DNA sequence: TAGATTGTTAATCGATTAACAATC
DNA sequence: TAGATTGTTAATCGATTAACAATC
């Protein structure tokens, strides 16, 4: 069942930012915060913050605000950071390696179990303690390990084939860094990181600014 | 002057996708396309496509559609891809190296002139033909070379300092990969690529899907 | 000319902001 | 209790979709 079916993507994409600032408050030993103070941190309006959070439950208390600790735990649960999702990275070039090296994902419960790569020069190497395996071993590996997420960091020419393969292996979620729109069943979750889109937007804004 | 001041960010962020599909059509030697056909490719509605493009000019022709060639050139101009913007990458870890290696940016006119790095083991190395220089040489380098964009791929602890430095060197646009909200003058353009936000969103959707 | 498809206005939908009663 | 701040409804704003006259 889809508990938060009616929550819009606009809301969901704000949650990570709330979560980040709440974690910063925890590091600073702040124990409570009002929507107004949180609005000054995040740049969202207090009204929006209250409405966003109320999509998921009444975490606050009138006259008091929100408990930072409670909010952190609730946001983590909402975002699924308590699930300990497992991942494989397909494509062990610089980008795949960068992600494998990125500690903050595992701090949030994500575990990268292996990288897969076509280039024989890379197969057998390790990134931290994560082995780079042969691309052809994906089927075998996914049979022996439960994998939740496939991270695709291959060149765009290979991305669709890789997507087809990991979906056929039963993986339900793809974090796609290749600049193409993957064609997959609609029950497969695809989250794209499109660097071209981001850079072109920057370029547009820069052009506007200079004129 | 800000020519397209009144155009919303929602529109702007769709332009790169139009541009990508238009380029695919060019590779397939398609010379004309209607908003309806483009809607099938991109997933946006035909109405939206016509309205989006009309923010920038009437590129189409009644009864005919859009010339693919014209649309490509116009989109490139709108996005500033004809400007040949120059960039430096600050942080020469895997992510910085991945971006330096990414050919498709220079195919669109972006030139990476140098990487900068603190780690002495990396200084002096080259990524393709791009040299990794000492972080302390940024001032000197920006005095001798006109740089439009700073790409920040350092750990988050250093990102704000780096931002301050590149802004003081006269750089007006930052492509930021560190998971923090940089504090800069409001006339400086910052485009963030927030991998945490993206992964958490995927995690949220995956959790919803599985339940 | 008839058919196709744009450019553009009007209608709808959804998201954000404002307001305030509820309540800690 | 009085003050503060939430949760939630209503008002506003903006973005998307529908419709159609203009025109190639």
Automatic annotation (TrEMBL), chains A, B:
GO CC term, one of those recorded: cytoplasm
Binding site for NAD(+): 91-96
Pfam families: CoA_binding, Put_DNA-bind_N
Taxonomic superkingdom: Bacteria
Keyword annotations from UniProtKB, A to Z: Cytoplasm, DNA-binding, NAD, Repressor, Transcription, Transcription regulation
InterPro entries, per database record: CoA-bd, NAD(P)-bd_dom_sf, Rex_DNA-bd_C_dom, Tscrpt_rep_Rex, WH-like_DNA-bd_sf, WH_DNA-bd_sf
Keyword DNA-binding: yes
Subcellular location: Cytoplasm
Ranges of the DNA-binding region feature: 17-56
Subunit-level organization: Homodimer.
Function noted in UniProt: Modulates transcription in response to changes in cellular NADH/NAD(+) redox state.
Protein name: Redox-sensing transcriptional repressor Rex
Source organism (scientific name): Gottschalkia acidurici (strain ATCC 7906 / DSM 604 / BCRC 14475 / CIP 104303 / KCTC 5404 / NCIMB 10678 / 9a)
Organism placement in taxonomy: Bacteria, Bacillati, Bacillota, Tissierellia, Tissierellales
């Amino acid at each position: 069942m889809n508990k938060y079916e009616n929550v819009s993507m606009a809301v969901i994409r704000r949650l990570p930012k709330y979560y980040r600032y709440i974690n910063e408050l925890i590091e600073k030993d702040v124990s409570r915060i009002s929507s107004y103070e949180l609005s000054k941190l995040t740049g969202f309006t207090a009204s929006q913050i209250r409405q966003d959070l109320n999509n998921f439950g009444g975490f606050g208390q009138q006259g008091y605000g929100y408990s930072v600790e409670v909010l952190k735990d609730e946001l983590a649960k909402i975002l699924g950071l308590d699930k300990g999702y497992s991942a494989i990275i397909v494509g062990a070039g610089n980008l795949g390696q960068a992600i494998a090296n990125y500690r903050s994902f595992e701090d949030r419960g994500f575990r990268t179990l292996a990288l897969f790569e076509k280039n024989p020069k890379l197969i057998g190497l390790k990134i931290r303690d994560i082995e780079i395996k042969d691309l052809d071993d994906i089927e075998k590996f996914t049979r022996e390990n439960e994998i939740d997420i496939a991270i695709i960091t291959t060149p765009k020419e290979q991305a669709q084939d890789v997507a087809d393969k990991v979906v056929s292996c039963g993986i339900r979620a793809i974090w796609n860094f290749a600049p193409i729109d993957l064609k997959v069943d609609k029950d497969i979750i695809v989250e794209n990181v499109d660097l071209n889109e981001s850079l072109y937007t920057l370029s547009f804004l820069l052009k506007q600014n200079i004129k």
